[in-house]
Amino acid sequence: MDTATVDKSNRLSATKLGGKMVSDYWDNVFTARERGEKVVWYNGSAVNPFFQAAGLVWCHGEAFSARLAAQRLEQPAQLAAQEYGYVGELCSYARTHLGCAVLTQNAAAHGNGSGVVGLPEQAELASKLPAPDFFVNAYAGCSTGQQWDDISYRVFGKEVPIFNVSLPFLWGNKPDAGYLVGEEWEQASDYVSGQLHELVAFLEQMTGRPFDWDALRQNMAYLKQASQHRREAMALCAQAPTPATFWDWVASIAHINFLPASQELVDYFATIKAEIEQRLTEGTPALRNERYRVYFDGIMNWNKLGFLARKFADHDVAVVAGRYTHQAFWQEPHLIDPENPIRGMAQHYLLCPTNHGAGTIRQLILGDCEQYNVDGLVFHSTRTCRAFTNPQNMVAQAAQDKLGIPSMFFEGDVADASFYKDEILESRLEAMLEGIDVRRARS
Amino acid sequence: MTAYYLGVDLGSTTAKSVVVDETGDIVASQVVQMGAVSRAGLAKSMAGALETVGIGEDDLAGTVATGYGRRLVSGVGRTFTEITCHARGVAAMVPGARLVIDIGGQDSKAILIEPDGIVENFAMNDRCASGTGRFFEVLARAVECDIGELAGLALSGDRDLEVSSMCATFAETEIISLLARGERREDIAASVHRAVAARTLGLVAQVGKHGPVVMTGGVARNAAAVKFLEQTLGLPVTIPATPQITGAYGAALLARDTGDRPVAEEPEERRAESPPDCTSCTAYAPAPGARRLIPLEPR
Fold first, then answer.
1. Domain residue spans in chain B?
2. Taking CB atoms and an 8 Å cutoff, what residues of chain B touch A398?
């Protein structure tokens, strides 16, 4: 039962401007064919600065699935994927995107290229993606990503080229291993850097023109600045009450993850940072009555972004940080050298939050918990993304043992609403908060 | 004049009411089995408990509600989750208990508690009804016996038929297949009880195996469920005299402990009502000492 009656959340207004940027981006994707532009489909890491430099239109599979889910338009695509043969427990990003591929193929078969006559409106949107000229796969820490693109390749009749960037898992078990340090880190960085040079050669082959290295340098200069603003703004939220929440950072994932690198992008994150600074100056909190601060571990449940933001606020809970937002998406801008960007890009592709051994994940999350001074952890046990959920119990145990921070788990999913049950989240959240209350009263 | 406190546990299959006096002793209790989160069951249960004491609702010094239907109970001071209430109830019923295993009609929980009844950690079953009271209802229906006869049936079984513990619906299919294969009802019942115990062990693993162990909830009245759980855990399991009312008892004690007030009230300086429009709020400075401010250092 949804007990939220009054919205006590106070989301950043800057992110509303960002909504138009995202819509414009997708409109640009939908109309790529009309402009005679080549289209690349890709999944996983943010290799889009390469595509931008190569003059391509790019479509990130998870991003489009997330967008459909956020708009509650995901079901036709998911049904199409199931009809094609994919079970309901396959990654719902993959299932949705594969369904889009099927619907796109259907649309093309009917000759109008933008939807099938008679299909419901939702299916029409799911089929709006222009078919790919080629795929690039660059998936870290995921057991589904490469098979996903393999199936997409089959959906399109095995006629669309694929380039695969192989990203090794960072085990972190050598004596000198650690976050951003050690032989394993350096070797993996070299290995991926070499593949990125091969990716550039592949793009030259696909586009039939020389790669524009200056454009890539410019893109990465923009991304470095945008990321710096983003990270500095996040750090400001260590203060209590927090001026912005995890939900604000979720609303800005699209921008940092796949929108074109540009001055507009830099300005967007500068505006967010300025709004947060202004809130701190004026004393404006991100929710009406912050009584608890929690960390959110798990990929976003895209069907429930606004709903969850209101629900947590209704319980006076500020969700101040999360692994998905704070340990991903160009999160280490100091690694980016715009003049020589390849190695820093390779390193960020390795820094996917599912691509670390459990020890590193534990270290990163507990570090965030201390930095943001949280009272509890909320684990979104993402039903179809076990890569994210596998180490969660270990992290919960470590948070309890080392920091005395309690946890709760709730089940849900990235893009399949059927896995979410509100009463489960409601009861477990209340139970965790009751425990925090009791401890506070006792101390 | 004696002060009385009422705890109400409106669960998925039963409504339970417990009245305690100011010393925390149970003076009345009433369990009513009706439909899911039944308002009629709730009313009957409350009326029965109050009638035993000879008082009306207006005479109560405090009331706390818990269970799935806790928000449906009118006139309560506040609500607590079953997790907090079971922990509080068990700490009072079985002093020194560390691990509470509560198997109710709809869900099952493992709750690690501190000696004073504070919840240290907890784990609950996910959406599947496997390992809950509902699972046993499915079994009783399939083997055509009354739910009260299940324990005797299971304790007579000796073969392990490896029934799936993952899904109540598929388990029913599995049971029917076993019956069709000619397996004995006793062995099937025993195997299902083993499966529930194994499922419960998975919850215990999430909070850590600790003793003494106390089992609450309706399933604690099933002797076979307790026996198989003890075997699986490798630890003795204590059953309170009235396991079904543990949550309601904990709720009544919390009503007495808190006097209807929230357990942890906000410090006075932080309690000031925020203005309706947060964007115009100017009084948000954190309470001194309420929270450590983190120095803003670069990563």
1. 4-90+248-258, 96-239
2. none
